[in-house]
Structure formats: C-alpha cells, structure tokens
C-alpha cells in the first residue's frame, strides 16, 4: 500500500454496513449511521448523483452529522425505529444529560426534505452539527451562503437549503453549528432540495412533518393482512416497510437497493450499482405486498411494466430506470476511494443489455396475480401484454441466457432460467383452466401451444438439469456445478418439497455450498463467472434454503435456521445482500430488496401459508 493509500484509508469515514439506518420518502433515501452521520443521499431521486457520498469515501465527499460535542463524555447510546414507521430515533446518554435525535424524510410534496429533530431529555447536552455538501458523488463543491440560521448551497441545477434555530457558520469548507439543548427543548434542522433556477423550497414546521410522517407510515402498516406466526411479525413488518421505502412512488418501480458499489467482498471488485428497477425484484415485491393486502402497490407496478414494455414483449429488459427508461451505460468513478478501499465504483448497470429468461416467469406470475376487473381501462392491455410475452417466450426460451446472477461471460442454459420459463407457461395455463370464461377460440390455440412448450421445458430440465453424479439439480444443463438458485424448484411448485430429487439437491447444497450455516450462490472457486475473488454468503439463497427445509418436512430445523438468519439483521431489522460469517458483518448493497423479499416469503411459508408464488389466481382477477 502506498503512502497515499495509507493516508486515504485512515481518512475513510464509513462505518460497518450494519451500522446504518435507511430513511426515505419513496422517491429517494438516505443512510444515517448510528453515530449521527448521514453519509449517503442521492438527490432528487434514488439514481441521481449523490450529494452526500462519504459512504464511499472520506469526509471530503460529503456528510451531515449531528452528535454530542467532542468534550461530552458519552456513557451509552442506542437507536430504534419508531414503531411501524421509517423514523429513526437515536439516544445518547452523557455525564451531563440525555438527548435524542429523530431522523426522517417526510412523504414528498413539491420538494424533498431531510428533517432532524434534536430533543433534550434530561440535563443539558452540548451538541455539534457538521455538514459538507458535495454534489456529483463528492466531486463538486457548491457555492455556499449563510444568513443567520439559514444556509443556501447551489451547484449547477441543484439547490439545497438548510433551516434551523441553531446558529450556523462556515468552517474549513463545511457548515457547522455548536449549540446546547436542555431538558424539554428542541432544535430542528430541515434540509430541503430544490431547483437552482426556482424559488427556495417552502419552509414548514418540523414537528408537523413528524406527525404527518408518523401517521402516514402507521396507516400504511395497519393495512397489512399478514396473519402468519406472531413470533416473526416484527421482522415481516420491518421488511415490508423497507420494500415500501424502496418503491419509487411516481411510477411504481422498485429499486434493488439505495446504494451503489458496496462490496460483496471487502477490497474486491464485485461492486455493482443497484439503484435501478429489476423486473425480478419488482415482481417479487409485488407478490409479497399482494399477499400482505397491498393492492394499490400492485396496480402501480402494473402501470409501470406496461409503460416500460411499451406494449411489445420484444422490448422487455431485465433492468430499467425509475420511470421505465432503458439503461445503456455503465461507467466508473475514479475520484472516490470506495467503501473500505473497495473499487471500482460503478454507475449504471450493463445487466440491462442481458437476456435473462427468468424475468418472463416473474412478469407473468405478477400480472396474473394483479387484480383486474372488466371496467378497468388497462385490463385489455394487461391481457394483451401477457399473451404477447408468452408467445414471444415460445420463440426464445431454447436460447442460452445470462441467468439470475447476470453472468457477464458466455451465455448458458441455466436451470433456474428454464424453471421460470416453465412457471410462466404453467401459471397462464392454470389461469385459463380455472377461468374458462376468459378463453376465446384464439386463446384455446394459444393454451395448447403453451402446454406443449411447458411440457417440453419440464422434460428438458429433468433430463439435462439434474446430475445423477451429484444426485442434484445443477447450475446449468449438463453441468456438475451447484447453484443455490435451484432451491426455488419446490418453491415454484415444479416438484414437491419431499421429492427425492429435491432432497438430493438439498443434501448436495448442504455439502457443497454451505458455509457456517449460510448458503453461497455458487462456488466461485469452481464456477467460472469472469470475475476475480470470492464473495460472502448470499442471504436470499439462505432464506430459500430454509423454505426448502420446511417443504421437505424438516420444520423444526427450518424454524431454527430462520431464527438464526433473523439474528443477522442489524438492530433495526435491516439486511444487505450478503454476509461474511468469518468477519461477522454484512456485505453488498444495502438495504437489499431481494433479501427482504426472501425473508418475507420464508416467513409466509413457515407460518403455514402456501406463499405468494402459489399459482392460484385471486378471484378479483376474474371478476
């Protein structure tokens, strides 16, 4: 390591991934550390350039910290989400007193805001606020002006205004405030985003915003109809709230995570940008929310997919922008050192150009599960798109693809991809069998074609996707490489959970892909994925494994494993993409939609439900 790298490493500011909380307004989100530092925020949207990028660099790249002053002796600190909300409450106890900070982002009106309320609980505590706004991922320092308790920052199209009762001043290219908070007193900081060519964002009362935000989240969580095992209710609710926070409200899309380039192995190159909408994640989230009674989100997603597909299944991609726009570029930042010196820092995602056959199964399942009525103006468009997707799938499913793990090398015949092709045909066939009133003569011809394709892909999976040598389903046809994605075979209803081939696959994965009770996606030392180094255990796969245990009849073992996985959440109930069992820390982008989706699915199955992937179509679809 060079002297420069050593100096840079010493200045890195980010905490462990699990030491962050997420707050958001369903259009963007921020990560706030338990030490009071907001280290990541993309404004005005999830995929916009970050104006606080300290998570991937140093203080020079932007942060917004509120914390007891340096000479306050901290005795204890704690934090939590206010019940049923996305409002974080941090508490510090010092020799002189006790203070709390409430952090949240109100549901957006015209502008986006971050609100931080400092409340004196006991005694008197000296507090310090430090803020360094740096636009364009930490590369652009704004033009700053301070007037009493008001600060304005402008850089190109961006305008950020800070309003507070505390005194503000400039210090070493940052904005700071030293203030005292006594028992019963409050000091509020409201940071608002706007356009540099328009008027300043309107001011508002912080406590009014707190009340409205708390009410909005509480009302949303109360709509849940989930009635599984009460033991896991809190974990399920927190995951549902997290998934809602990752939803882009204007369009109904869902981002895979709020971050880019948090590493799958510290110091490694497996660092990706997840601030976009994967059809897979969005469809799975829709099914989860539908199961929990959230039909509005399902209808919003349906509109998003219809716009994104533009009516033609040939144009469907695996990854889209927030509004359904096509993504083409992936580039790298060279001025950020990366999280704990893990590079590259990727912006954009080339997976948008890949062929991923599994997405068609996910789309069809979600479309059919979404309530549609005859007086719905988009009902015909939904059925037309679904029919078009299935007929298009008839033409392309025999091709190799990049798979669920988005392999960047040679395409292969991935077993999971073919499984989801089977699911697409099977789900549609079952729907028209259960609701013959929806069938026309044209649909009769389609269904017969789909039935033939379904039977062919099923036979092919059983013949070429199962290794007699391993007694297990494998990653790809005619391969002996294991892959945890085939754990979804019983979850999709392709085979029963106690089928000998499923039991053999479970045993093979336990022997070949288990590390300290967690499951790897695949063995990077054996499977060529055209990337260097290894990665942590994949948490979604670990949840799938637990579901398979339950379906295989090993229910007590499944419950024990599920409880263990829940202990890997941070103390706010959040999970990243992966986990390093040796270092005992989370890895990958955070919080990760796929992980929380898998947690919910497993909780449903272990709670006695048949899961969101049940082929049965809700009656409302056929009314």
Features:
623 residues, alpha+beta, Beta-galactosidase, Chain A, domain 5, Glycosyltransferase, 2 domains, three-stranded antiparallel beta sheet, 28 strands, 33% helix, 23% strand, globular, disordered N terminus, disordered C terminus
Walkthrough of the structure:
There is one protein chain. This protein is an alpha+beta fold and 623 residues long. It is built from 16 helices and 28 strands. It has two domains: 22-197, Distorted Sandwich (Beta-galactosidase, Chain A, domain 5), CATH 2.70.98.50; 233-622, Glycosyltransferase (Alpha/alpha barrel). It is globular. It starts with a helix and ends with a helix. The relative contact order is 0.10. The model is unreliable at 1-10 and 612-623 (pLDDT under 50).
């Amino acid at each position: 390591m060079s002297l420069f790298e050593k100096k840079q490493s010493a200045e890195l500011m980010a905490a462990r991934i699990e030491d962050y909380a997420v707050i958001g307004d369903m259009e963007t989100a921020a990560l706030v550390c338990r030490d009071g530092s907001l280290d990541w925020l993309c404004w005005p949207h999830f995929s916009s350039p970050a104006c606080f990028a300290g998570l991937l660099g140093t203080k020079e790249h932007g942060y917004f910290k509120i914390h007891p002053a340096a000479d306050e002796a901290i005795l204890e600190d704690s934090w939590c989400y206010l019940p049923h909300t996305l409002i974080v409450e941090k508490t510090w106890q010092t020799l002189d007193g006790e203070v709390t900070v409430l952090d949240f982002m109100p549901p957006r009106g015209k502008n986006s805001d971050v609100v931080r309320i400092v409340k004196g609980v006991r005694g008197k505590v000296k507090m310090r606020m430090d803020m360094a706004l740096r636009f364009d991922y930490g590369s652009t320092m704004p033009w700053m002006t301070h007037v009493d308790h008001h600060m304005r920052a402008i850089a190109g199209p961006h305008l950020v205004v800070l309003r507070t009762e505390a005194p503000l001043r400039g210090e070493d290219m940052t904005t700071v405030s030293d203030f005292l908070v006594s028992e019963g007193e409050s000091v509020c900081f409201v940071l608002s985003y706007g356009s540099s060519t328009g008027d300043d964002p309107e001011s508002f009362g912080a406590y009014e915003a707190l009340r409205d935000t708390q009410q909005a989240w509480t009302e949303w969580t109360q709509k849940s109809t989930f009635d599984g095992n009460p033991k896991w209710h809190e974990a399920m609710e927190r995951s549902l709230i997290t998934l809602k926070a990752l939803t882009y409200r204007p369009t109904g899309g869902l981002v895979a995570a709020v971050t880019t380039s948090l590493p799958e192995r510290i110091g490694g190159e497996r660092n990706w940008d997840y601030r976009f909408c994967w059809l897979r994640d969005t469809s799975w989230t829709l099914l989860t929310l539908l199961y929990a009674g959230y039909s509005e989100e399902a209808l919003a997603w349906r509109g998003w997919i219809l716009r994104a597909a533009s009516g033609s299944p040939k144009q469907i991609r695996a990854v889209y922008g927030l509004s359904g726009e096509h993504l083409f570029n992936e580039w790298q930042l060279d001025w950020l050192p990366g999280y704990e010196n893990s590079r590259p820092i990727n912006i954009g995602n080339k997976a948008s150009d890949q062929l991923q056959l599994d997405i068609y199964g996910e789309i069809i399942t979600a479309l059919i599960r979404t309530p549609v009525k005859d007086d719905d103006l988009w009902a015909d468009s939904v059925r037309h798109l679904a029919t078009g997707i299935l007929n298009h799938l008839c033409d392309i499913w025999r091709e190799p693809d990049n798979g669920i793990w988005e392999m960047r090398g040679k395409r292969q015949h991935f077993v999971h991809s073919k499984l989801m092709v089977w699911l697409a045909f099977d789900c549609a066939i079952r729907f028209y069998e259960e609701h013959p009133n929806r069938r026309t003569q044209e649909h009769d011809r389609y269904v017969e074609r789909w039935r033939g394709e379904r039977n062919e892909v099923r036979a092919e999976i059983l013949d070429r996707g199962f290794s007699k040598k391993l007694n297990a389903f494998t990653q790809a046809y005619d391969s002996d490489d294991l892959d945890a994605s085939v754990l979804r075979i019983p979850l999709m209803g392709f085979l029963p959970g106690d089928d000998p081939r499923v039991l053999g696959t479970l045993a093979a994965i336990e022997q070949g892909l288990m590390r300290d009770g967690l499951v790897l996606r695949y063995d990077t030392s054996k499977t060529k994925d055209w990337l260097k180094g290894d990665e942590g255990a994949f948490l979604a796969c670990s949840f799938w494994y637990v579901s398979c245990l339950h379906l295989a009849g090993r229910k007590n073992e499944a419950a024990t494993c599920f409880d263990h996985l829940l202990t890997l959440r941070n103390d706010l109930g959040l999970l990243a993409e992966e986990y390093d069992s040796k270092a005992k820390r989370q890895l990958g982008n955070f919080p990760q939609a796929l992980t929380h989706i898998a947690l919910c699915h497993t909780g449903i199955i272990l709670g006695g439900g048949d899961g969101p992937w049940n082929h049965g179509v809700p009656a409302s679809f056929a009314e």
